[in-house]
């Protein structure tokens, strides 16, 4: 990040923190990152998996499922200390170890550090889940400052470029890259203009990257997951919606999803079960039909 970009963020930043550090405020009902009914089958034994933005919500659920499937898990978070510590303990219970990094995924040097230290510890990378994201509700485009626009794109899409660039040279053959996009990439969201725009960019990034010759030559598969309304700490921390029933009422299933309901989709894309799948988006959204 240039000094000018830093100055813009400092002078134009909205009042709330860009990383939603209050995300572990109490929610009712409490979000669920883990299903008691999940039955692991060793699908990721011997694999090294990096999950960005995994302190809570979808990232935490994916990290837990990967650990249960036998992967060595590497996690990034920003500063959500309470949730992060809970996840750290849970993965250590499952696997005995987790490699943890705290920093800004929108800073390319942080992405490089995560990959370098992961390779130093484990020798290579097999799975990269680009999941870190942030959102800020605004009623009008005129309320979106240059700083917010820069920050949302930096976290949500720039970070994916940075992590793939750093990881690809160290990825084993048959590696997997999984990006988290959103139903808003297809439906839009009037109050989340910049967020929805980044999620649309992620779809294009996923499709384009999957067709890149270097990716094809290394037999790396690139896919994405597009969640619908998922009850995570991000929701009340960044919107006025504190009611789970209201939050999920618009989808055919008439309810919000839990983070753990997404995790099997990531396990599928990270494992050899999806050996003939690349450039695709899996829609886990409560029954909303998306023709895209």
TrEMBL record:
Q: What is its EC number?
A: 1.1.1.47
Report biased composition (Basic and acidic residues) as residue ranges.
1-25
What domain of life is recorded for the organism? Bacteria
PROSITE patterns, sorted: ADH_SHORT (PS00061)
Segments carrying the region annotation (Disordered) are 1-41
Q: Which InterPro entries match?
A: NAD(P)-bd_dom_sf (IPR036291), Sc_DH/Rdtase_CS (IPR020904), SDR_fam (IPR002347)
Keywords in alphabetical order: Oxidoreductase
Q: Name one GO molecular function term.
A: glucose 1-dehydrogenase [NAD(P)+] activity
Question: Secretion signal: which residues?
Answer: none
Family per similarity comment = Belongs to the short-chain dehydrogenases/reductases (SDR) family.
NCBIfam families from the xrefs? PRK07231.1
Q: What is the protein named?
A: Glucose 1-dehydrogenase
Q: Can you name the source organism?
A: Carnobacterium inhibens
């Amino acid at each position: 990040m240039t000094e000018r970009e830093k100055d813009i963020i400092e002078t134009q930043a909205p009042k709330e923190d860009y990383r939603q550090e209050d995300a572990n405020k109490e929610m009712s009902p409490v979000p669920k990152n883990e299903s008691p009914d999940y039955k692991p089958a060793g699908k990721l034994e011997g694999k090294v998996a990096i999950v960005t933005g995994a302190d809570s919500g979808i990232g935490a659920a994916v990290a837990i499922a990967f650990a249960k499937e036998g992967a060595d898990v590497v996690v990034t978070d920003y500063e959500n200390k309470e949730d992060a510590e809970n996840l750290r303990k849970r993965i250590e219970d499952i696997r005995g170890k987790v490699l943890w990094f705290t920093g800004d995924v929108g800073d390319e040097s942080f992405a490089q550090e995560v990959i370098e230290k992961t390779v130093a510890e484990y020798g290579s990378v097999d799975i990269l889940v680009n999941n870190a994201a942030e959102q800020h509700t605004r009623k009008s485009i005129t309320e979106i400052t240059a700083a917010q626009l820069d920050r949302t794109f930096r976290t949500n899409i720039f970070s994916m470029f940075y992590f793939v660039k750093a990881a690809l040279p160290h990825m084993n053959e048959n590696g997997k890259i999984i990006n988290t996009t959103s139903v808003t990439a297809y439906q839009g969201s009037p109050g989340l203009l910049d967020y929805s725009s980044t999620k649309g960019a992620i779809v294009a990034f996923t499709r384009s990257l999957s067709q890149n010759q270097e990716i094809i030559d290394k037999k790396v598969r690139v896919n994405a997951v597009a969640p619908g309304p998922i009850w995570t700490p991000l929701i009340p921390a960044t919107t006025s919606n504190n009611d789970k029933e209201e939050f999920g009422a618009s989808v055919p299933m008439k309810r919000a999803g839990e983070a753990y309901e997404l995790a099997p989709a990531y396990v599928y894309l990270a494992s050899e079960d999806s050996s003939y799948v690349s450039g695709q988006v899996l829609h886990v959204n409560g029954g909303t039909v998306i023709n895209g």
